[in-house]
Specification:
- The chain is 46% helix and 19% strand.
- 42% of the residues are buried.
- The chain has one domain: NAD(P)-binding Rossmann-like Domain (Rossmann fold), CATH 3.40.50.
- It holds the Pfam family NmrA.
- This is NmrA-like domain-containing protein.
- Belongs to the NmrA-type oxidoreductase family.
- InterPro entries: NAD(P)-bd_dom_sf (IPR036291), NmrA-like (IPR008030), NmrA-like_oxidored (IPR051164).
């Protein structure tokens, strides 16, 4: 009899990648039936998954009754929370804890949580305004405290982020302006494609990865390397500009300006993964990850 894996955000970047790679895997597609959680089961993306045999259900992360129904019978759960839906740390933390509580109640055997480091703690209190990291770290801590069998996937800096803010300057040169030095190391991931490769490997290595952090990055890249590979691929000129903290914040909506500033300062010091190597996380993979150059080649943004 197939086990059930419940995937939150099944029509989004991370959950969608998990569903895609489980369906495509010769072993896991037979071992697991997939239940996808989404807000609206009638939208085309949800209907497309239904046509592939995924059971699509809606659930309210704020309602434990709703989550009890959604997680019923689940052996494995992939959980991703969305801070930016409300931009409220308390709401995200409550939602994550709700899922953890129900997973504990229903005896879920493996909770895979998409988390991030606690920036406030890792920076020694220097950077204390990055709630979209710290809130997830709070949920992770709670999952550990209540004893749900879990593995923690830490997605890297999205390659797609660069599509948003590498723009032509007045001289037509593709320019990235950041409040860090050009030597700051960004761990990058093609989130839509590669999340499922990591999660698939986590599922297959459950027994040895309970309690572990898996770092979801293809490699570390400096801004110089990011831009050089754009030039190499497209032939377009590129330029890096380091801007002051105040100038950088002026580029952004006020509600997120300080958060994004400190997010980038964290990447420079102590580092997005606090200096951790990617070797262990790569060691579990069966599939090749998308490199930054490969991402640029298929991107229409540059």
């Amino acid at each position: 009899m197939s086990k059930l894996i419940t995937v939150f955000g099944a029509t989004g970047n991370q959950g969608g990648s998990v569903v895609k790679h489980i369906l495509a895997d010769a072993v896991l597609s037979k071992e697991f039936k997939i239940r996808g959680i989404t807000r609206d089961t009638s939208k085309p993306a949800a209907q497309a998954l239904t046509s592939k045999g995924v059971e699509m259900v809606s659930a309210d992360l704020n309602s434990k009754d709703s989550l009890t129904s959604a997680l019923d019978g689940s052996h494995t759960v992939f959980l991703v929370t969305n801070y930016w839906e409300t931009a409220n740390r308390d709401i995200e933390v409550t939602q994550g804890k709700n899922v953890a509580d129900i997973a504990k109640q229903l005896n879920v055997q493996h909770l895979i949580f998409s988390t991030l480091l606690n920036v406030t703690k890792e920076s020694g209190g220097r950077l204390s305004h990055v709630p979209h990291f710290d809130g997830k770290a709070d949920v992770e801590e709670y999952i550990r405290e209540i004893g749900v069998p879990a593995t923690f996937y830490l997605p890297a800096y999205f390659m797609s982020n660069f599509e948003q803010f590498i723009k032509p300057g007045e001289d037509g040169v593709l320019t990235v302006a950041l409040p860090v030095s050009e030597g700051a190391k960004f761990p990058l991931v093609d989130i839509k494609e590669d999340t499922g490769k990591f999660v698939k490997a986590i599922i297959k290595n459950r027994s040895t990865l309970l309690g572990a952090h898996i770092l979801g990055a293809e490699n570390y890249y400096t801004s110089t390397q990011v831009l050089d590979q754009i030039t190499e691929t497209t032939g377009k000129k590129t330029k890096f500009v380091q801007v002051s903290e105040e100038v950088y914040k002026s580029f952004l909506p006020e509600f997120m300006a300080q958060e994004m500033l400190e997010n980038h300062l964290f990447i420079e010091k102590p580092g997005y993964y606090a200096g951790e190597t990617l070797d262990k996380s790569h060691g579990i993979l069966e599939d090749k990850l998308v490199s930054w150059k490969e991402f640029v080649e298929k991107s229409k943004a540059f």
